[in-house]
Amino acid sequence: MTKIAVLKFPGTNCDLDVVHVLKTTTNLDAEVIWYQDFRARKFDAVVIPGGFSYGDWLRAGAIAAQTKAMGEIRVAIDMGLPVLGICNGFQILVEATLLPGALLSNECGYFVCKWVRLRVRRPRGPWLILLEEGQEIDMPIAHGKGRYYIDEDTYMKIASTSPTIEYVNENPNGSSFNLAGLASPNGLVLGLMPHPERSAEEELTPRGKIPGGIYIWKSIELSLKRGW
Fold it and tell me: Is 143 a catalytic residue?
């Protein structure tokens, strides 16, 4: 059976949520893997979930980004394995320079937890294939350091080559260019601050919201079925 590794660092707290949603909304198997035990060749895809790895010391994701596990993540990417970073996982990918930019404290100065509307641009790759250009979806956010920063020149390059996920109607943390997430040019590596594992089941979705997470999980299921 196709298996996804859900990587756990000290302080990770969304790992079981990701395993739950993968097992209940797809036909994929998923397993929580302690970061020291992770070996890329044993799995078909990797999710780095949310939480507060190493207590967000130095910067959110900074210590986890320096572990040997991230060397294995680089091996996974070189092998063509899809990699998804959610919230703290996105921060780790950025700190490891696997995605560009930086993640800073929210502009408002406090932790923000709410549902937000998102728009997907240039969807491609294993995590986004079921989404259409300009499609709007909803997901919840829950972070204190989710303000994505990128300079204009780099953004212009990304905007012409890479998938992005943008906040619509409001920018809850002051992110540059309203960015809530982005992917590598081929879409293999995706990072986003919103939580797709909390927006894929009807019971968790408020009335009137479009559960965006289900598109992420169904996309990776289809991609792996097709032999990504």
Answer: no
